[in-house]
Each structure stands twice: as structure tokens, then as C-alpha cells.
């Protein structure tokens, strides 16, 4: 009988220990969690983010409380993905995504949301960097031209090209300057018929 009591007490202690250890676990791990949407809220219950899928578009966005719009937005859809970042005034200032020619593109904007820098590829697949003034007019173009040579163009306030420095059709360098309405004022290079 003594052994029966010791066995019963030992089994009871072991069972109680198992329940205590199982109950002490605070962390729950899921191998696979399937949901259509996850909403992120702040301590007051205000929506500050979302992860989901709608109309064949996967999205993720975050914004601080009492902010109208999405400060950070990441989307993925059939045409490609994009990352957009807005400033505290709701103006989009960064857009990293897919261009119309299916290449990557980075657009940077000023505080008012006006595009000021564009980095990407032209339709021929050559790299380019374009700078714009605060009105959105192109002022500088640096890139690879159609004959795979490098070039730099500057433009005035009215959109007229004022300087061209680059490589021509004959793989030789040249420089062209123009006046305020685009009329050629100077040419320095191998042959003036290098560039149309």
C-alpha cells in the first residue's frame, strides 16, 4: 500500500508539473496562418496599416495616426511592384517602380510632390538620369544615347536645349551650345553633321 501511495503522489506531482509547464507558455507559434487581410491599429484602435490582397493586387501600407493617406505603400501586381513614400503633408516624394517600357524607375519629388529627379532606362534600354526644376520642366539629361555613347544635355526655363556634350555617330566627342530659343551658337567637335 505504501508503494501505491508513493506512486500515486509521484504521478500526481508529474501531472501537475506538466500542466504548470504547459500553462506557463505565453508564446504561441503558428506554422501557417492564412488570412485575407491584416489590419494594424494603434493603442487607440485607429487604423495605421494594412496587409492584404484586393483585385489581384497585394499591398502593404503604414501611416502614423491622424495622417490622411498612406505614408509608406508597397504593392505588387501583374504589371510589377512599387514602393511609394509620402511626406508628412501627404505629398508623394519617392516612387520606386516599373516604367512603361517594363524597366525599373526611381522618381524623387520635392516637398510639394513635383517630380525633380528620374533615374531609369530609356526605350532602347540605356540608362538615364533626368533632373527637373520646381515647375516640373526638364533641366538636365544625363544618359546613353541611341548610338550607345554618353551625353549630357541642359535646358533653360522655357525647355530649350542650351548645351549638348557627348558622343556622336562617329564615336567622337562634341559640344554644342544654343541661345535662349534653341538656336545653335557654337559647335566644337570633329564634324558638325555628327548630330541631327
Short description, anyone?
The protein has 196 residues and is mainly beta. It contains 1 helix and 14 strands, in the order H-E-E-E-E-E-E-E-E-E-E-E-E-E-E. The model has no long low-confidence stretch (mean pLDDT 83).
Describe the protein's architecture and organization.
With 196 residues, the chain is mainly beta. The protein is 12% helix and 46% strand. It has a 14-stranded antiparallel sheet with strand order 1-2-3-4-5-6-7-8-9-10-11-12-13-14, with no helix packed on it. The model has no long low-confidence stretch (mean pLDDT 83).
The CATH topology assignment of the largest domain is: Outer Surface Protein A, domain 3
What is the CATH architecture annotation of the largest domain?
Answer: Alpha-Beta Complex
- Assign the structural class, choosing from mainly alpha, mainly beta, alpha/beta, alpha+beta, or little secondary structure: mainly beta
State the oligomer.
Answer: single chain
The fraction of residues in strands falls at over 45%
Mean pLDDT metric: 83
The biggest beta sheet is recorded as: 14 strands, antiparallel
Sequence stretches where pLDDT stays below 50 over 5 or more residues: none
| Portion in helices | 10-25%
CATH class division of the largest domain: Alpha Beta
Kindly give the count of domains: 2
User: How many helices in DSSP terms?
Assistant: 1
Silhouette: elongated
Radius of gyration: 31 Å
**How far apart lie the N and C ends?**
111 Å
Number of strands: 14
H-E string: HEEEEEEEEEEEEEE
Main-sheet strand order equals 1-2-3-4-5-6-7-8-9-10-11-12-13-14
Amino acid at each position: 500500500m505504501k508503494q501505491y501511495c508513493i506512486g500515486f503522489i509521484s504521478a500526481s506531482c508529474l501531472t501537475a508539473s506538466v500542466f504548470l509547464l504547459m500553462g506557463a507558455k505565453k508564446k504561441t507559434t503558428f506554422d501557417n496562418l492564412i488570412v485575407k487581410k491584416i489590419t494594424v491599429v494603434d493603442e487607440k484602435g485607429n487604423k495605421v496599416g494594412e496587409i492584404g490582397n484586393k483585385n489581384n493586387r497585394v499591398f502593404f501600407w503604414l501611416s502614423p495616426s491622424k495622417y490622411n493617406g498612406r505614408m509608406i505603400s508597397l504593392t505588387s501586381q501583374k504589371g510589377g511592384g512599387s514602393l511609394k513614400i509620402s511626406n508628412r503633408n501627404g505629398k508623394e516624394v519617392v516612387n520606386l517602380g516599373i516604367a512603361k517600357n517594363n524597366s525599373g524607375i526611381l522618381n524623387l519629388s520635392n516637398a510639394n510632390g513635383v517630380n525633380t529627379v528620374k533615374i531609369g532606362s530609356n526605350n532602347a534600354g540605356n540608362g538615364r538620369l533626368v533632373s527637373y526644376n520646381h515647375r516640373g520642366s526638364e533641366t538636365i539629361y544625363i544618359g546613353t544615347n541611341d548610338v550607345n555613347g554618353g551625353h549630357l544635355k541642359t535646358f533653360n526655363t522655357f525647355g530649350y536645349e542650351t548645351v549638348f556634350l557627348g558622343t556622336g555617330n562617329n564615336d567622337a566627342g562634341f559640344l554644342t551650345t544654343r541661345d535662349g530659343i534653341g538656336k545653335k551658337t557654337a559647335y566644337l567637335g570633329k564634324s558638325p553633321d555628327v548630330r541631327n
